[in-house]
Design goal:
By secondary structure, this protein is mostly helical. Helix content is 66%, strand content 0%. It is built from 19 helices and no strands. Helix 17 packs across helix 18. The longest helix is centred in the middle third of the chain and has 33 residues. The two termini are 44 Å apart.
């Protein structure tokens, strides 16, 4: 997940967190709410920072969701004739799962939502448990949701779980329980689904996050950038499709965000559309444009495809989570071919290896690291003269080992076990892709199937 980081917090971030906490204290004091609420939020933040190691920005986003719930609960409380069980508490946990794709944080948000709403509305422990379990049911259902119909199903499941919990707590059913407890709780789940459907895109924009629904929209081949790439850089487009298949299979194997990986791979090389003829996969003739250029000029052309890709991504309003794939899939890797050419041709003194390295940053997440490895492996495998399973495995292991030794995986949270799993998946997929075919005997009317 992109929100992971080290424990260091900048001065500006500390100020933002402190101001948020102070604002919550002031609100609770003047609203007459118990000051244990800010203390609860404080320890929630401590857990996120020092045990989940998330960015302060994520804490602020989660705090905003909780603040909106607190304001809604406060507003509902002022209307004594309304039944408090209508408050769509589970929607907070469901939104958290959709936006941040983290079950543990969503679990904590389900608990925080139930407790905070319970304190404000005067729920007892049984009622808090009803909403906590309803929130958990919603979280588990919307995890990896790829259609909005799943959100409706999640709302129905929330309703069912909340009603079952209420009946377990109140086994003796009468008219009052049906009208003032069971009915509101049943409607509550559907309200949660409506709130999530209506607000997910809004929070996605505000927080700069991306949901599976937006990822699926970006994966559509009719997207303007994809249509341009097919026409202007068909070789790069085909390369991106292969990288996406490799990367998605590897992401599935290590339980990373496979849909994000697939879509990020689609767009990782969009900068090549500006000068497609300078990249070998788009060269329709044997002549290489770089044969006419000095290595230093070739270096600039290759460097620029990263900057131009980022510019194109901003022009087409791609989400930052997708834009991250453009520079991070190269990291600070060395352009080995042009560096060796510069050395061989006796380039000016003072030439340093760092001059032929991409500017970075190195991959900051598992997802961008997987695409970096898939991109490198695909290119190296394609260059093989003979695509036997053993040759493919040797190349895959060598490329991944070189990236590891070069430090390209230092800033993401891939483990050695996950790296080995990724390599095994690459070998399996590439071996299947380059599988041998039976040679059919030549004869009249004989065609290969």
């Amino acid at each position: 997940m992109s929100s992971l980081q080290n424990n260091s917090i900048s001065r500006d971030q500390s100020i933002m967190v402190a101001v948020t906490f102070l604002a919550l204290v002031i609100f609770c004091y003047f609203s007459g709410f118990p000051l244990i609420i800010p203390l609860l939020v404080f320890f929630f933040g401590v857990h996120l920072f020092y045990f989940k190691k998330v960015k302060p920005r994520l804490f602020l986003h989660l705090s905003l969701l909780l603040a909106l719930l607190v304001f809604a609960a406060h507003a509902l409380k002022s209307y004594s004739h309304l039944i408090h069980f209508y408050l769509p508490i589970a929607s907070i946990a469901m939104l958290t799962m959709l936006l941040f794709n983290d079950v543990q944080i969503s679990f904590m948000m389900a608990l925080m939502s139930a407790v905070l709403a319970g304190i404000i509305l005067g729920f007892d422990i049984n009622e808090m448990l009803i909403f906590f379990l309803g929130g958990l049911a919603g979280v588990y259902k919307v995890r990896d949701a790829r259609t909005r119909g799943v959100l409706i199903e999640a709302g129905i499941i929330v309703s069912i779980i909340q009603v079952i919990c209420a009946l377990l707590i109140n086994p003796v059913i009468n008219r009052d329980i049906l009208m003032y407890i069971v009915k509101p709780l049943a409607i509550n789940g559907l309200l949660c689904a409506v709130v999530v459907i209506a607000s997910a895109k809004i929070f996605e924009t505000i927080f700069g996050e991306i949901t599976n629904f937006t990822l699926l929209e970006l994966s559509d081949s009719s997207h303007p950038l994809m249509k341009r790439m097919v026409v202007e850089a068909p070789g790069s487009y085909h390369h991106s499709l292969i990288v996406s298949n490799l990367a998605e299979a590897a992401a599935d194997a290590i339980d990373a965000h496979s849909l994000l990986v697939r879509v990020g791979a689609y767009y990782h090389d969009i900068g090549k559309m500006v000068k497609p003829e300078y990249f070998t996969e788009n060269q329709l003739v044997t002549e290489n444009k770089h044969d006419e250029l000095e290595p230093s000029m070739s270096r600039l052309v290759i460097f620029n495809h990263v900057k131009e890709g980022i510019d194109l991504a901003h022009k087409y309003h791609l989400n930052n989570r997708i834009i991250d794939f453009i520079p991070e899939h190269h990291g600070t890797s060395l352009m080995h071919y042009f560096y060796q050419r510069a050395l061989a041709e006796g380039q000016p003194e003072g030439l340093e290896e760092k001059d032929y390295r991409y500017p970075g940053p190195k991959p900051q997440s598992k997802e961008t690291a997987i695409v970096l490895l898939a991109d490198s492996v695909e290119g190296a495998t394609r260059a093989l003269d003979e695509h036997t399973p053993q040759r493919i495995e040797d190349v895959v292991r060598k490329v991944i080992n070189n990236k590891f030794i070069d430090g390209q995986l230092d800033e993401c949270n891939l483990t050695l076990r996950e790296i080995d799993t990724i390599a095994s998946v690459f070998v399996r997929v590439l071996s299947a892709m380059y599988h041998g075919r039976i040679k059919y005997p030549e004869g009249k009317g004989t065609l290969p199937a």
